[in-house]
Amino acid sequence: MTAMQHDPAYNFAYLDEQTKRMIRRALLKALAIPGYQVPFASREMPMPYGWGTGGVQVTAACLTPEDRLKVIDQGADDTTNAVSIRKFFERTAGVATTEHTNEASVIQTRHRIPEAPLGAGQILVYQVPIPEPLRFLEPRETETRKMHALEEYGLMYVKLYEDIAHNGAISTAYAYPVKVEGRYVMDPSPIPKFDNPKLESGAIQLFGAGREQRIYAIPPYTQVVSLDFEDHPFEPSKADHDCDLCGCGTSYLDEVITDDAGGRMFVCSDTDFCAARQAEGHRGRLSGEDAA
Amino acid sequence: MRDDALSGGFTDAPVEAARAFRAALEAMARPGSLHEVAGAEAPAPLSTAAAVLLLTLCDGETPLYLAPGHDTQPVRDWIAFHVGAPLVGPGEAMFALGQWDALAPHDAYAIGTAEYPDRSVTLIVEMPELRAEGVRLTGPGIETEAHLALPETAAFQRNAARFPLGWDCYFTCADRLAALPRTTRTEAL
Amino acid sequence: MYVAVKGGERAIDAAHEWLAEERRGDPQVPELSLAQIREQMSLAVNRVMAEGSLYDPELAALAIKQARGDLIEAIFLIRAYRTTLPRIGHSRPVETSAMRCDRRVSATFKDAPGGQVLGPTFDYTHRLLDFKLAAEGEAPVARQAEPTLAPTPRITEFLNRDGLIQDEAHSDETPPDMTRQPMEYPADRSTRLQALTRGDEGFVLGMAYSTQRGYGRNHPFVGELRIGAVEVEMEIPELGFDICIGEVTLTECETVNQFMGSKTEPAQFTRGYGLVFGQTERKAISMALVDRALRWEELGEENVGAPAQDEEFVLAHSDNIQATGFLEHIKLPHYVDFQSELELVRKMRREVEGSMKEAAE
C-alpha cells in the first residue's frame, strides 16, 4: 500500500468539478433505477476510448483522499492497463493503492469480479465497452431504447433459444445478459459467466461506458438473474481443474501454455486471491518447495 | 446581497465535495442509512446537509425549485453565489428543496419518461428530525429491512408503484442525510 | 517453476523511453521546431485543429511533433487537452459573408460579384514530384495583386433572392454542445454539423463519395467554396457591446442540390453545408454532401437505405478518436473471456463426441 500527494497541476482526481457533478448526478439516478443505462456527457480522457475511460470517470467521481484503490484487469493487479490506470490515480488523486481486495474501498475492474466476497464500504467500478445488451441483436439506439422502455426483451430470449436449437447450449460465455430487479436487462460487462452469481453483492457496483456515454449501477443486495430457460438453466462454468499454485477448486482459472509440447497449467485469474491462499499455506500441483 | 451569502461554501471544494458525494452515494445505494456531512453553512432554514447536497450536486445546469419556506431572499442569494442553479417552478426542476408539506403537491414534479426514466426530479426534503425507526423499508440496497421515520407512506407507495418512473428523495436534518430512491418499498408499522 | 508475469510497470516505463527515442529519430538530424511544423505542415496542422475542435496552430504543431506525425494520435492529444480547458465565454456566431477570402470559387456561376479567386490550391498542379524541393533553401515568392475591397456576398444568396433555393430557418437559440451533452437520436441539424466538422476526414469523405456513386444521390453542385479569415466577436456584458477577440481561418462550402419538390413544396434548390477550421476544403465539401444526405427526412425525400442517409450510422462512427480507441483496445488482454469461450467450446465438443459415440455403439 502506498500513499502520495496528488500532482497540483491537476484538479483532485483529474476531472473538473462541473464534470464530476454531472457524473455524480448520473450515478445517483443509476442507483435509483438499477440496470437502466443513464446517458452522461462522457469527457475525452487522456487515455484511449476502449481502455477504461468510462470506469476511470466513474472512479474519479467517487474517489476521496481517504480511499484505498485497487485496479485489476483480467483479475490481475499487474497487467499493463491496470498498472497504467493505477498510476493515473496515484498521480492525479494522490490516493493510496492496494492489491488486497479486502483492504480496498474502491476497486476498478476490467473483465472480472474478485473471488473474495465484497461488502459494506466497498465500491466495484466496471469498465464497459458496449453497455447495451441488445446491441448485437439490434444496432440502432433508437430501437433498443424503445425495447427497454416497453420491457420488450423477446428478441434476447429468441437469440438464446436459437443458440440452444443450433448448438445444444447457450453459446454466450462472457458478457452474459442479466435481468436486474425483475425489470431491466443489463450487460454485466465482459466478465466470464462464471462471475455472474457474484453480481448479487453487498457492495455498490457501478458501470461506466465512456465511448458509449452510459452509466449504470446495481445497488447492494439487488436481485440479478442470468437469463435462462427452465430446461436449460444458467450454468456458471470454469476450467475443470484446481489451481496449480494454490490448489483452489472453486476459483476462475487462467490456462497457461508452459511449453511447445502441449504442456499447460491452470492458475487463479485473481492474483491477490491466489497469493493470499499460498501465504496461508495452500499448495497446488505445481507448487515448488519455495513457493511461499 | 448580504454578507452571509458570500460565506458558507466549501473551502476545499474538490475534496469536500468528494466526501459529501460518497455520503450521498452510500445513502442512495443503502436506502434509510444515515450519513453525516460537513463543509457548508447556509442561511436558515437551509440545513447544513441540504446545503452540502446543493454544493455537491447542483450548478448552472440543474434547474432548482425552492418550496415556500425555503424560497427566501437570503437563501436565493446564497444559492446564486455558491451554486448558480437557475430557480424554476416544480414542473421543470431537476432538484427541489423544502419541507415535505411545502413541496406538495408531490405529483407536480418530473418523473421521467418510459425511454428516459432518469429525467426525473430529486427531492431534498428538510426534516425536523431524522431517525432510523418507524416505516419499514425493503428493496434494492437493503439486505433485510431498514427503518426510517417518514412524513407519510402513501406518497412513497404511489411513487414506487410507477417504477421505473418516479422521483427520488434525500432527507436532510442538521448535518445528517438519508435517501429513498423510487425502488424502495415502504410499509407503516 | 511457473511465475506469474510481473513487471508491468517497468515494461511500460521502458516502452515510453523507447518511444521518446524513436520520436526524436537520428540525433544527427536537426530537431523539428514547432514553427517549422506550423508553417510548412500547415494542412496537417489544420486537420488536427479541425478534428481536435481546438483552434490553436501552435498546440496542433506540438501535438503533431509529439505524435510522430500520426495525425489521429495528434488529434487525440488535442481533444484530451481541450476537455480540461475552462469555458470563459461563448463567441457570437461568426459572419462568414464578411470573410476575407483567400480562395473563393463557385461551380454554379461563371462569375459573381466579388469575383472568383483560386488562391493557394493544388487543383491545377500537375502531380509530379518536384525534386527541386529535396534541396533546401528555396523560399518562393508569389506575385501580388491589389486586394479587392469589394464585398463578397454568398453566392447562394443570389438564388435565395429569387426563391430558387430553400431558405434556412433563422434562430438565435444557443445550439447544444455535443462535447457537453450525450448524443441523443434523432439529433438536430446543429448537432449533426458539429459531429461532421470534427469527424474523421477519411470517413466523411468516404460517406460523401458514396452519395455521388448512387448510395443516396443528391445531385450536388458546389455553389460556393470559400476559405479565409473571419473575426471572432464576443459580447462583453460589462461593456454592453461585442468586441473582436481574434481571427480564425475557416473553410466554408455550400452545395446547391436539386430538389424535385414535394406535395407541399414547389421545386427549388436545397443546400448542404460544410464549415471547418483552417484550410480544409476536401473535408468541407464532404461535410456539405453528407449534411445534405442526412436531411432526407426534413425535405420529404425517400430513404433509399443508403449509409450516408442513416444518421445513427454516420454520427456514431464518424469520430476517429472513439473509433481508433475501440478498435485498438482489442489488443489489450482478453484471456479471461477467451478462457470462458474455450471451456464452452470444449464442453460442446465433448457433448457432440459423446452422442456420436453413443450412436456408433
TrEMBL record, chain A:
This is Alpha-D-ribose 1-methylphosphonate 5-phosphate C-P lyase. The lineage of its organism: Bacteria, Pseudomonadati, Pseudomonadota, Alphaproteobacteria, Rhodobacterales. It is an enzyme of class 4 (lyase). Signal peptide: none annotated. Its EC number is 4.7.1.1. InterPro entries: PhnJ (IPR010306). One of its GO terms (biological process) is organic phosphonate catabolic process. One of its GO terms (molecular function) is 4 iron, 4 sulfur cluster binding. Catalyzes the breakage of the C-P bond in alpha-D-ribose 1-methylphosphonate 5-phosphate (PRPn) forming alpha-D-ribose. Keywords: 4Fe-4S, Iron, Iron-sulfur, Lyase, Metal-binding, S-adenosyl-L-methionine. The keyword Lyase applies. It comes from Salipiger bermudensis (strain DSM 26914 / JCM 13377 / KCTC 12554 / HTCC2601) (Pelagibaca bermudensis). It catalyses: alpha-D-ribose 1-methylphosphonate 5-phosphate + AH2 + S-adenosyl-L-methionine = alpha-D-ribose 1,2-cyclic phosphate 5-phosphate + methane + 5'-deoxyadenosine + L-methionine + A + H(+).
From TrEMBL, chain B:
It holds the Pfam family PhnH. It comes from the Bacteria. SUPFAM superfamilies: PhnH-like. One of its GO terms (biological process) is organic phosphonate metabolic process. InterPro entries: PhnH-like_sp (IPR038058), Phosphonate_metab_PhnH (IPR008772). NCBIfam families: PhnH_redo (TIGR03292). This is Alkylphosphonate utilization protein PhnH. The lineage of its organism: Bacteria, Pseudomonadati, Pseudomonadota, Alphaproteobacteria, Rhodobacterales.
Automatic annotation (TrEMBL), chain C:
GO terms for biological process: organic phosphonate metabolic process. It holds the Pfam family PhnI. InterPro entries: PhnI (IPR008773). This is Alkylphosphonate utilization protein PhnI. It comes from Salipiger bermudensis (strain DSM 26914 / JCM 13377 / KCTC 12554 / HTCC2601).
